Sequence to fold (701 residues):
Amino acid sequence: MPEKPFEDISLLLVTALLAVSGFISVFFALLVIFTTGIESIFIKTLVIFTFFIVLVVPVAYFFICRQLFSYLKERQKILLQLHEHEKQYRELFEEAPSGYMEYNEEGRITAVNKKQLEMFGYSAKEDLVGKFVWEFVQEREESRRTILGKMSGTIPESRGLERSYIRKDGTLVSVLIDDFFITDGNGRIRGNRGVSTDISAQKKIEEVLRESEEKYRMMFEHAGIGIILINASTGRRVAFNREQHEMLGYTREEYEKTYPSNFLFENMAGSYLETLSKLVEKKTSLVETRLKKKDGSTLEILSSAVLIKIDGEDYIHFLNVDITQQKKIEKELLESQKKLHAIFNSVQTGIIIIEAETHKVLSINPYAASCVGAPESEITGKNCQEVLCSQKDGKCPITDLGREIDRTECSLVTSEGSKIPIIKTVLPVDLEDKRYLLESFVDISEQKRSEMEKRELEVKLAYAQKMESIGVLAGGIAHNFNNLFMAIQGNTSLLSLYTADDQKLKEPLDRIDALIKKGSELTRQLLGYAMKGKYHVKTLDFNKTLHEALEIFSITRDDIKTHSKFDESLFPVNADQDQIVQMLNNLLLNAADAMPEGGDIFIKTANVTHNEISENGHEIKPGDYVLFSIRDTGKGIDKEILKNIFDPFFTTKGLACGTGLGLAAVYGIVRGHGGYINVSINSGTEFRLYFPRSKEEESAD
Fold:
């Protein structure tokens, strides 16, 4: 505050005016006295006293007022300084970079600065003053207990207390709080001053750094390869990831306590150190080495290393890849390659690899070379048309004409010009953007000869089956004729008795009797041809009878393989053995007809009960049964004709090949023995025959 010297001058002027006015007043008073002749002592004394007062009072007033003005001046100066300090404090309070807040003993806010308002997201102090502090803190209940505890003196002042303020818009701001007690003259706590520093940006940076560190830590730990950092001067492991210790079979704690020598096999230390030296000195970029795992097994690794500096110190950064499985696969591939090479050279199938673009033979196995009749060296490198197929137009049927060859029958031209029948398959193969033809073939010269013999045998078998069917038909007709002849013979015998005296009838009756005898002889001959007659039923071993029938069938049809599964504890059955044999032959021949190219027949016997017999239009009698099933691998029977297969004279083989009596006879024999028959179609045809179990204990010889 600037000084004001004119105040002293004003004081002197006032004093002078008072003195002048006093002198004037006294002068006029004396003038009146002396002009009027007043003689009164009292009045004169009063005037003189007044004159004295007028002289003294201004002087006294001057000195008293001067002291008073000096005091007021000093006080005004002090007040101005206080005002200036308060202004500076207020500016400092309002513009402080940290939030400032005061609250009373109840925890209610009494004062806040501008920064504190910003932290809370408010613009007016009136929105905060009077409210509880903890209303604006995320940790509300904890904050309330802490504040009240401080006001009661049980909790000391806080330094660096981290809290999260709730802003007006609901967002959070992280702060660090330092608080100081407000006390009265007696030291009693009357409130608290809190200084809040916004650390949201710092927290975000810390979070970003933490996430970044976590990300790189995760990348480090889960890199999929072993990573290890070693101090170059001390050799101490500074850091390693999970893959590094797990690939060696150790836990992290075990690996930290394990010396590098534990990972080396005997006599490996020198070579291992030499390898590391080469890696660090960049004499080699990658190196394969073997380490010993915790369980003693071998770990094959591929290592790389680089020398790096961290805080001025040298460190070796190793990257280790577990290639144990890869080495195992390489070994297996090598062994597989050897096996394939052995198979390629020894397999009795011709294999030729041809370059599709040039048609050059790249490789040929010994079997193919032997079929061609030339050494491998003379075939390899030549055009395949020159040594294999000799196309007249020079066009390859695969690459030029786009044909597919899959198990195709064709001829192979030998070096002598002769042709060998083969079945050939050619498969295009793409390797490394280049197309090859993988050709394989089988010499079928022997098969062709076997097929010719097979056709001759089939003709004989068809003739035998035809004659067998005729026999069945003849047997049936013979039985019917026998019945007719017996009836005729009985009636002629009665006529002979009734007309014994009539000579005219005797001669015709004798001729009829002779004809009956001739017819009976004929039917007897037919039954002998058909191997029929009266039933000769006995207890039969079905397995034995079936085995004998299969032996005969196998001799005539070597292109069909039979597979049998007999129940050794099979129930005996009561049956006519001749008819059972006939039934088995018919079924075997029927299965063979369904497989003209050959195949398999599966035969089974088993003990079953009536509950296991499928409904087939007949009432199934309760009891035990013997199951006989026969299944072929032919094309099966069409569903449209399945219902007619047991009809007499029904056939799908044509008049020249079939009689239509085979399955009809089978059906009659099964039903004649009190059995049942079922048919199912599933990748072939299966007949299931069921015969009642014999109640007798005697077994067939």
